[in-house]
Structures are given as structure tokens and as C-alpha cells.
Amino acid sequence: MTDKRSSPLLRRLLQPVDIASLVYFRIIFGAIMLWEVYRYVTLGRVSRYFIEPDYAFTYLGFDWVQAWPGMGMHIHFYVMGLLSVFIMVGFLYRLSAALFFLAFTYIFLLEQARYLNHFYFVSLISFLMICVPAHRALSVDGWLRGAAWRRATTPAWTLWILRAEMGFVYFFAGVAKLNGDWLRGYPLNEWLAKPIAQIPVLGAYAHEQWPTLLFSWTGTALDLFIVPALLWKKTRPLAFACAVAFHMMNSVFFKIGIFPWFSIAATLLFFDPDWPRRLLGHGRAQIADLAADYRFGTREKIAAGFFIVWMTSQTLLPLRPFLYEGNTSWTEEAHRFSWHQKLRDKEGYVRFLLTDPSTGESWAVDPRPLLTGRQYLKMTARPYMILQFAHHLSDLASEEGKPRIEVRASSMVSLNGREMQPMIDARVDLAAQPRRFLTRHPWILPLEVPREARWDQKSPPKHPVTLALIEAHRQRFLEAVDVAADKE
Questions:
Q1: Are residues 354 and 254 in the same domain?
Q2: Based on the domain organization, do 388 and 479 belong to the same domain?
């Protein structure tokens, strides 16, 4: 039993509960990860994503993370597949979970252009899997170590921390949707036009506003209120059914890989801890097992401290967007790691102008030949990637014997169907600007073009990047640079 002198919350967190739900999640986590590794290997994504590109947009502070040479990346994925199997069957579980976390996070850190919320989520969950004793039942480790080592129970915090992580994803995704564009149906109107048209009955109204608003508003409500509904036993079955329908529609509409399935699997954790045992007809764990002795010792204090620190960090990190002025879907500041999902549709282009201040020589650089198609498309809409590539161009010039090169960017971007406008201050030497994570970047121009309130048609008019537009903006860009030089 827990120490009666400890707080009620601590006693609640250390209270033993059935381990069946935790064991279920270990098995399904390993299976889904094995499936994802299989997809990457068989679909040629390992080479296409991590070997063939000549340049990688690394994360700030992790520039040292580079792709393995030769066959290293393929071997890396084979090892991840093996570790997934080890996690699934509970063999060398702690070591396997730790190595999988490092291996998966390494893949995540290799390329910013491939940032996905669900990969971030998997990285967080894989870390938590190291910390929970999901191998103390129905595992190879338990079979090898004997009955005395196996457990039918686990401290409640080991289940609550996984529930909380899924809850953070739901809730903060809902908070992020409380913005003018989303609540007026943008950018869902662009993405859902064809899928809605294929739905019986509803398809007849595909070009009206209300079907898109129905999806945007119900999605927001589900994200905001699904966790309380799952926690209340009376509404839990209906809430889970709504969550399954929501994730299945996401899978059909957006083709987002494992995320819908992984989310459904994690949402099942909100049911009573013994639900897998009862589903298989094994009844409940024995009362004697549920009365296992969990003392409030040093180990429990460390576990409680970890739980508090983790919960605090996962609460504060998604609140970062509120510290920044302007539209974070435009500036991208604090957009990542905050569960901002499907909130913006951007299109545009970017060109760079390099200047050698010692000679006054200037030359334009089109980044497209130096990047993959995905890298270029992502970079055009993300100022932090434009800044990083500007530093890269400066480094390349230095290698060619031209140190201290100034790099300026010409960018035109459209957000959620708005008219295109410049996103980067063309007068600023980006090569001299530091890369930052928390502080604001003053060279990002504010979003000035308003979102039209009326619904003229299903999809807002596109603004194709024609050669004439590029040339006209290039001339304005050069003129702006000349004016800035005169002022200096």
C-alpha cells in the first residue's frame, strides 16, 4: 500500500491497476511501428527521403544528425523493424524500447521538410514506453524471468501518462482550430471539395458552404471535448465511436499514414484498465494481485517527479503560439510541436539574391535545382527553412572562396487562398540573422491581406506563379535592395 502520509493525488497515481491495457498498448505499438517500417522499406522511401537528397534541413541544435552513408539507412530501418518485434513480444523490452526511441527520433530529426505531427507523437510515445513496465505480463521477458517477476498490476501513473499524451494531442489541436480561417471553413474547403462530392446525399451540396463548416466545427468540438467524454464512463462508448469515425474520415480524406490507426489504438487506453482481459473472457485480475504492495520509496518519488515534469512540459509547449504576435500559420513561429494540424494551405515561391559586398557583384539563385520537390515546396512557406537555406548558400559561397556573402530572399506566398504577398523582408541579409527557436524573427513580414468573409465558390481562386509574375516581383526585389543599399 502507499504511504498514508502521502498526498491523495500521489496515492491515486501509485494505486495499482490492471496491467492488461498497458500490455495491449505495448503489442499494438510494436505492430504499428513494424507496419510503418515495412511501408518505408517496401515503398522505396528510405532511399527517396534520406539517401537521394543532396541537402537536408536539419533541426536547430541538431545539425550534427546526418544520414548514414552507404547501406546504413537501410540497415537502420531493418534494425527498427527488429526492435518493433522485440517490443511487441516483450523481449529485452527496456533496452529495445530505448533503442527504438533513439532510432525513430534520429529519423525524425534528419529532415525538417518531413515534419509530421504524428511522427512527433510517435517519438514522444516511444520515449514513454521506456518508462512504463509494459513487459511485466504476456512477454518473453516474463517467461524467461519466471512467475515471481511477472505482475498483473501496474501503478496507475503508467497508464495515465499515456492517456494524458493522447489527451494533449486532442485538446491542443482543438484550441489551435479556434481561429478565423478554420471556423469559416478554410482551408478545408479546398481539401474536401472532391471527397464531399463522393458522399451520398451530402455530395449534392458539395459546392455550398455548410458541408465544409459542418466538418470544421464538428472536428473542433470533438478535439476540445473528446477527452472529458472519454473520462466519463456513461459517455465513453459514444465518444470512442465518434473518435473512430473522425480518424477513419481523416484516413480517407487526407491519406496521413499510421496516425489515424495509432490514435484509435491510443484512445482505447481511456477505457477501464482491464478491458482487454474482459474482452478475451479472462475476467478481472485477482483481488490479491490488485492489493500488491506499492510503497512510497525513492523509486516512487522519482516516478512522481517525472510524471509532474512531463505533464508540465507537454502543457506549456503547445501554448507557445500565444506568446507570438501575428498569425502563426503565416509566420510558422511556434507552429510545430503545438499540435497545429491541417490549419494552413500555402503556395508560393522563393528566390535568393547573393551579394559580394567587397566587389558589389550580385547574382540570383534559384533553389529548385538544389532541393527535392518537397523540400522546395515546404521551404517556400516556412521562414525558418528559408533562413536555414540562406545560411547554406552563404556557406557554399565561402567554400568557393567568397566569404561574408550577403543573402537576401524574394518570396511571395498565399495563405489559405489569399492573394500572394511578400513573406520575407527583401532588405535583410539573412546570412547575418541567427537561427532561433523561441524568440521572434523581425524579418518575417506580417500577414496583411485579409481573408475574404464571403463564400463565392467552393475553392478560393488560385494565383498561379507565372513567369511574368516572377519577373515582375524580381524587379521589385532588386529595386528594394538598391534602395536599402542607398540608405546604408
A1: no
A2: yes
